[in-house]
Amino acid sequence: MDEVTTVTVSERILEAATEEFGREGYAGAKVDAIARRAGVNKAGLYYHVGNKEQLYEAVLRRLFDQVAGTLENAVAGREDPFAALTALAAALASLFTRLPMLPRIMAMEMASGGANMPEAVLGEFRRIFGVTRELLARGQADGALRPAEPIFVHLALVGSLIVYSLSEPLRQRFARAVEDMGLRLDLPLTDMAIFLAGLVGRGLAQGPDAVVAKEVPRDDP
Q1: Is there a single domain that holds both residue 31 and residue 105?
Q2: Average pLDDT along the chain, 221 residues, taken 10 residues at a time
Q3: How many C-beta neighbours within 10 Å does residue 51 have?
Q4: Which of 7, 8, 55, 124 is most buried (most C-beta within 10 Å)?
Q5: Do 7 and 109 sit in the same domain of this protein?
Q6: What is the DSSP letter of 213?
Q7: Cα–Cα nearest to 93, from 187, 165, 18
């Protein structure tokens, strides 16, 4: 019973910490606020997870482990590199939709140059970038894809999806100013992901007969 209770409290603390760090950033986040969100006192928070630095590391490791695992599963068994690319982008979109604090934390870490990024989290980034690298290597080996720097491809997808995700309030406000232009500013993130995958896929396609995947099954909530 004690073990079950500990896991439950730890998860609640990490959920609260993710929300606080996502909204306030590392510098602005307060341990007191995290404890209140989690419904525990500071002593309980320190006991179950640790201090602010340890909290942030636990949040990032938890988030990026989910990213790495989700991307690995998304491309597993997909021999067609264009279908794999679309699945990769759609999986990112699904994660950003399900975990809205994830793109916010990623954007803040990018903007700060990873100032608060713990060394222990970098292993998860190896897994994440490794998915894109392996996908491109397979496609190039099969003659379907042109050579490309994996970091360019990965950041083209991730960066664009972060911007689209975080721009939702601005897009909602801007929509009122362009009602007469017929612009769709409320399209779901998965649509953006499929568009990006198609754009990148066409740019990397080797030969005129390459077929670029356009759809993957949707699992957004």
Answers
A1: no
A2: 58 96 96 96 94 96 95 95 96 96 96 90 90 96 95 96 94 84 89 96 80 51 42
A3: 11
A4: 55
A5: no
A6: P
A7: 165
